[in-house]
Amino acid sequence: MSEKAVILVSGGMDSATAVYEAMDRGYEPLFLHTSYGQRTEAKERECAEALAEEVDASEFLHVETGHLAQIGASSLTDEDIEVADADVESDEIPTSYVPFRNANLLSMATSYAEAQEASAIFIGAHSEDFAGYPDCRPAFFDAFQQVVDVGTKPETDITLEAPFVEWSKTDIAERGLDLGVPYELTWSCYRAEAPACGTCDSCAFRLQAFQNADVEDPIDYAERPDYRSSGADG
C-alpha cells in the first residue's frame, strides 16, 4: 500500500502542483482545505473540491476556522484593508500577509496526519512567498519539523515537505505542466471569485509564471498585464 501524505490544498496553483508532486513520489493524497474568512473562500473551496475529484483523493477534510479573520490585520480577511495592486519587485511584507497563518494550518495538518497515520505533510510554499511572508521561509519549515517531531507520539514519523521552497513560480508552473496539473481547476486571485482581477500580487505572480513558460493561463481574468519584463524571479 502507498504511504499517505496530508496536503494543504488551498485551491491555488502551488498547492495543486504539490498534490501532483506528492502523487508522483508515490503518496496517496489526503486533502486538507481550510476556510478562514478569506475574501475568495467559496471559490477556493470549489477549486479544492474539484481537484480532489479529479485525482480521486481518498480523503477530503474541510475545516472552517474563524479565528484568523477575527484576529485580522490582513487584506485577505479584513474588508477594511484594501488588497493592494501588485508590485512583483517589492521585498516588503504585503498587506495580504495573514499573521502566522502557516503555523495554524500546519498544526491542523499535523493533527490530521498523525490521526491518519500519514508519513508526510506537503505544502506548496515557494521562494517568492518567503520573500514577503515570514512563515514561508525555509528556516520556518525546518523549525516546524522540530515541533512535529517533539509534539507527536514517539512512534509517529511525519516528514514536512515543502518541495518548491527554493523555486520560483515559473519553476512551479513548468513542473506542473510536465505533471499534467489541471490549472483550469485552480484559483489564485485575492480580490474576486470571477473573473480574476489580474492585478493583485497573487494574480501577477501567477500570470508572470505562465507568461515566462510561454503558456496561456487557462482561467479568466478581468485584465492580463504582461509581467515578463519585471525583475522578479522567473
From TrEMBL:
- Per the UniProt entry, the Enzyme Commission number(s) are 6.3.4.20
Which CDD domains would you find in this protein's record?
QueC-like (cd01995)
What reaction does this enzyme carry out catalytically?
A: 7-carboxy-7-carbaguanine + NH4(+) + 2 ATP = 7-cyano-7-carbaguanine + 2 AMP + 2 diphosphate + 2 H(+)
Return the Pfam families for the record: QueC (PF06508)
What does this protein's record comment on cofactor binding? Binds 1 zinc ion per subunit.
The UniProt record gives the binding positions of ATP as V9, S10, G11, G12, M13, D14, S15, A16, T17, A18, V19
Question: Which keywords has UniProt assigned to this entry?
Answer: ATP-binding, Ligase, Metal-binding, Nucleotide-binding, Zinc
Major enzyme class: ligase
GO molecular function, one example?
ligase activity, forming carbon-nitrogen bonds
Q: In which pathway does it act?
A: Purine metabolism; 7-cyano-7-deazaguanine biosynthesis
Q: Specify the protein name.
A: 7-cyano-7-deazaguanine synthase
Task: Provide the function of this protein.
Answer: Catalyzes the ATP-dependent conversion of 7-carboxy-7-deazaguanine (CDG) to 7-cyano-7-deazaguanine (preQ(0)).
Question: What family does the Swiss-Prot or TrEMBL record give for this protein?
Answer: Belongs to the QueC family.
Q: Which domain of life is it from?
A: Archaea
List of residues binding Zn(2+): C189, C197, C200, C203
Cofactor(s) required, per the database record: Zn(2+)
